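Researcher: Here's my situation. A collaborator sent me these components and asked whether they could plausibly form a single complex. I don't have experimental data yet, so a predicted model of the whole assembly would be a useful starting point for our discussion.
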Amino acid sequence: MPTVVSLNTDIGEGYGAWAIADDQALLGLVTDANVACGFHAGDPDIMRRTCETAAANGVGVGAQVGFADLRGFGRRFIQMPMPSLVNDVIFQLGALSGLAAVAGTRVRYLKPHGALYHATTRHDEYAEAVVEAVLAFASAGHGELALLCQSGTRLARRAEAEGVRVVAEGFLDRGYTADGLLVPRGEPGAEISDTVEVSRRAVRMVQEGTVRAVDGTDVSLEVASLCVHSDSPGAVEVARAVRAALEQAGVELRPLP
Amino acid sequence: MPTVVSLNTDIGEGYGAWAIADDQALLGLVTDANVACGFHAGDPDIMRRTCETAAANGVGVGAQVGFADLRGFGRRFIQMPMPSLVNDVIFQLGALSGLAAVAGTRVRYLKPHGALYHATTRHDEYAEAVVEAVLAFASAGHGELALLCQSGTRLARRAEAEGVRVVAEGFLDRGYTADGLLVPRGEPGAEISDTVEVSRRAVRMVQEGTVRAVDGTDVSLEVASLCVHSDSPGAVEVARAVRAALEQAGVELRPLP
Amino acid sequence: MPTVVSLNTDIGEGYGAWAIADDQALLGLVTDANVACGFHAGDPDIMRRTCETAAANGVGVGAQVGFADLRGFGRRFIQMPMPSLVNDVIFQLGALSGLAAVAGTRVRYLKPHGALYHATTRHDEYAEAVVEAVLAFASAGHGELALLCQSGTRLARRAEAEGVRVVAEGFLDRGYTADGLLVPRGEPGAEISDTVEVSRRAVRMVQEGTVRAVDGTDVSLEVASLCVHSDSPGAVEVARAVRAALEQAGVELRPLP
Amino acid sequence: MPTVVSLNTDIGEGYGAWAIADDQALLGLVTDANVACGFHAGDPDIMRRTCETAAANGVGVGAQVGFADLRGFGRRFIQMPMPSLVNDVIFQLGALSGLAAVAGTRVRYLKPHGALYHATTRHDEYAEAVVEAVLAFASAGHGELALLCQSGTRLARRAEAEGVRVVAEGFLDRGYTADGLLVPRGEPGAEISDTVEVSRRAVRMVQEGTVRAVDGTDVSLEVASLCVHSDSPGAVEVARAVRAALEQAGVELRPLP
């Protein structure tokens, strides 16, 4: 059983004058920051500031890439040519890498956002395009780049087949089915908001590699990083409680390598 | 007198389905490509394709950075906070660098585009911001980055004061005043369209370091790279004629180092 | 058999400094202009200029509405909430109506563009949303608004069920199947480029209400307006030839009422 | 002395998933809503929802037009060709009018936002362009359209010279100089945050047509509508307090005609 885990959050998801989460507080609690890259949220100022705060707090930086869709916050599926998707992902990786380097840190992993994340779990070609972009960028002199995503998905399997390191992600505030998948939003048990329960699940996921599914059975779950949704109400409280519970249980919180 | 010169052009200035110049033909004639970075023109697909063609043709790649203004093609002045400008330039450098690396080449220099170029020649703070971005990006592990601009401008002076290498640019199709500045567009002699005259001026600029001003006097002019405006009518013919005239005069055309 | 027909074209599809078709020439040949509304192409300057030229030439104005996707030219499907689609269509209708009114004309019909057009022929909810927007806009004091689209599609049927007038559209440069549908692009016979054949088909569609399908059979086809694709090579020549052939055959070309 | 006044606020200034003010609460307190039109903030969904809420609350609707600059929230000056500015304003007016009509209301006035507002007070050509757009739109069948702005500015004078009705605006939370101008932000006395003082000033502005300037003198001030800045902290409390103070003083709050 691992006694080390990463705590990640989607961050830097404002745009210009708009903010959506308490980034400052969250960056004091997580170990890894999935920084938005300007396509679904984020702008150069926010990207740099987020990287600087992450660096100052010893928080690792990952690229949270999405569809080019500010209006839809990257939550709307866009059916696009795969070469364009590959190039869009490389563009976002490059832009964030430039700002991260200037901020004294570097991009260590990639996590697809919103509708792009879902597309990579449902359509092989979207999974392939994202993995192709990660490989192309990493092998062009930018150093190793991991992929942060749920274990067992099309995206994870494709990445592993291509030799890209996968960091298995667990979701703190979401219910699981007996198959280890997420309960779709809108269905009973899809969301868990009780801070105590979320904390208990976090400790169990990390120490036992297990989560209680909605049908009451226990499901094995590989988890190297736990995700706190920054735009949920109470995100800061959840992050604080989970962090405290993990530390009290003797789990070390450490940024992804 | 130098017998080596670079021939540069603004390129990759389409967007999505739109094109503005015959990029393919021009990339067969110039030695250096000022690739648009998505803010005033260009998108990830065009940026990658342009870098790949440049690499295949032995053409060097520079970042043509601009204001975020697709509608105005980067020709409208935007009064923005200087930290935002610094970050916007780094974002563009990073994005292009990512795609250039994947295309097997790298970004060697930066050239400001349109209204941003003019702003850097008129306002000290805009010149400082661009130079700050170049220095920050270069010193964060991206290798040396030169600045392509007219000699003697605020931008050139600021760059030199900060230790950034300046590549002196000469304009083939523009008239000069007795002070070595460009005749403002709209005034008599501002534009030169005759291919034969343009070619003759090109050879003289390179071999004698001199240009004939609109008042008939000869002006000294430092030139390490000659610019062909890709969106002028007849740009390809101008590039072809100038290239032939320079080669016939024994001038070597070579990409910027 | 009708002896009157409208000739429509997608127009005003540039953006800022970019153009994609010879709008000036086409507006001298067609009877109706499907003006892009800024979402997939077009900007306020182009929209106004296009309306002014249309008005000066006695050409009718329709709103060519699309997904908000300049990068993809409206050709990428976006899965969006239906209330947002309704509002996006009304926004486009309002913006074009404002500029059309100032140009001395008015918006008489709507035609969905690209991926939105295809979505309305495949998904009931997209058809419903477009019809809902047309009805809402028309009944809010903007006068009658017709829908220009292929007869028999989901969109056409929905419009008719809701009392929206449908103008049946025929495609000059596209092959038809024996069912009266378009041959999908990429398949044999999908595109017809021979100007003489296109002209002959145009006359037959209008005078006989018939088109020769790819399998050699004749298919009945209701056509009130013929579409010239403005971004095909030779669009101007096609429009000129079709116009001449129709006039010679005694068909009157007249804007939609 | 007037005993009737309008209370206006900038509203609908979110974008997609982002919000910036408590629009719902403010629309229960003001009489007139300056609705953002998608250029500096706002999108079709927000525009429609804001108009619907305004209509349901008996709140009047005005168009808050700005530079096309989501990233800068319309606060960055853009030097653009005047015909483009005219068309941009008409586009915004048309789009909002379309959505307002569907929401059962109409656009009664225009107020320039942020950097565009400042440009119209400093540069004659910007003032002329905005007035030209208002006149063109109004005279093209959209009904009378007033201009909401500070009395005595270039914009107000230009509007009056062209026969456009000006609604004189007073600022509740800003200090005034002895000339009746606003104290520039950053200088002492520029901002007033005390709710009691703001309320007292509001009553005095309306009942006596006077405001106490930063130098202690009393200045005459023509005010037909008082502005509550929606994005200030405590905007809702300010609006509530001012409304109560005015009603207690016997002033009637009424939407602009």
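Model: Some features of this prediction you could bring to your collaborator: The interface with chain B takes residues 38, 44-45, 47-48, 83-84, 87-88, 90-99, 101-102, 104, 136-137, 140-142 of chain A (CB under 8 Å). The beta strands of chain A are 4-11, 32-36, 60-65, 107-112, 146-149, 166-171, 210-212, 218-220, 225-228, 252-253.
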